Amino acid sequence: MRFSFQLIILIALFLLIETSTFALKSTLYFKIALDEQTYYENVLSDFDSVDNKLQYLAVKLIEKTLDLEDIDSDYYQINIYYNVRFLDDNLNVYNFVPIFNDRFRHVVWVKGNLVLREEVYDLFDKLLYYYVFLNYDDSKEKIKKIYRKVQVDTVPVSYYKGFNAIYIKTENNIMHVLYSDGLNRFSIFKKKFRKSIPEENKIIFGNYVYRIAKNGYIYAIIGTIPFKEMKRFLYLYIKKEEEKQ
After folding, report:
1. What confidence tens digit (pLDDT) does each residue in 121-177 have?
2. Which site among 106, 111, 155, 202 is 20 to 30 Å from 132 CA-CA?
3. pLDDT tens sequence across 185-221
4. Is the Cβ–Cβ distance between 93 and 85 less than 8 Å?
5. In this predicted model, which residue has the larger pLDDT, 71 or 172?
6. What is the pLDDT of residue 126?
7. Torsion angle of C-alpha atoms 113, 118, 121, 125, degrees rounded to 10
8. Which CATH number fits domain 5-10+147-244: 3.60.110.10, 3.30.200.100, 1.20.1110.10, 3.40.50.2300?
């Protein structure tokens, strides 16, 4: 099962959306599922000197803060373990377990609200990606959390099961909408495409990817929700599009 190079570019666009900005001097270890069988892992000691595209995209997966007020507890069972010893420090560990099997599990290790370690697992408990700061100087941390909602009338679906549309952009005739529930994220891309292509789904760079052609367009959904949920969302999205026409 092969995806086009264009779709790989879309994945890069998804990962490059800034949800947090930060200046950090630290050592980071990460492990990411490149596909269903292969993992990529590495250690970065200086983000300013990243010269590898995979490393750069890995850095973009990092969520620097855990903001509980942004996470809808109606969709997660939250197990909290306090004062867990980790690298000579005491951290709180949050295990976010999806209640309805419509999004993925996150295990987040925090000091205050600063994320020092995160693990993301799909519904089959397969690790999608994992990162951990091996050393850390929070006195030099500069964090700006970016979380915005788009106007309701600008997208066919502005809210879906705890996910808010927080970003929309059209560039090079590709429409992109990003959704977040404060923890999991997914994007939908839409582009005119007259050729017939098969329906496809795959794991690429720590994310599930689903692609289908319909009504003269190609739709691709990329993120940390199951394939069946991507299909349900896309059915609703296209239905709302047709109602607006």
Report:
1. 999 999 999 999 887 665 444 444 445 566 667 899 999 999 999 888 888 888 889
2. 202
3. 999 999 888 777 889 899 988 999 999 988 899 899 9
4. no
5. 71
6. 97
7. -110
8. 3.30.200.100
List own/partner pairs for 89-94 with CB under 8 A and 24 or more apart: 89/116, 91/116, 91/117, 94/66
pTM: 0.86
Residue that has been written with the tokens 């209640």 in this structure: 99
Q: State which amino acid sits at residue 169.
A: K
Q: What is the 3-state secondary structure (H, E, C) of the chain?
A: CCCCHHHHHHHHHHHHCCCEEEECCCEEEEEEECCCCCEEEEEECCHHHCCCHHHHHHHHCCCCECCHHHCCCCCEEEEEEEEEEECCEEEEEEEEEECCCCCCEEEEEEECCEEEEEEEECCCCCEEEEEEEEECCHHHCEEEECCCCCCHHHCCCCEECCEEEEEEEEECCEEEEEEECCCCEEEEEEEECCCCCCCEEEEECCEEEEEEEECCEEEEEEECCCHHHHHHHHHHHHHHHHHHC
**Hey, where are the domains in the chain?**
5-10+147-244, 19-145
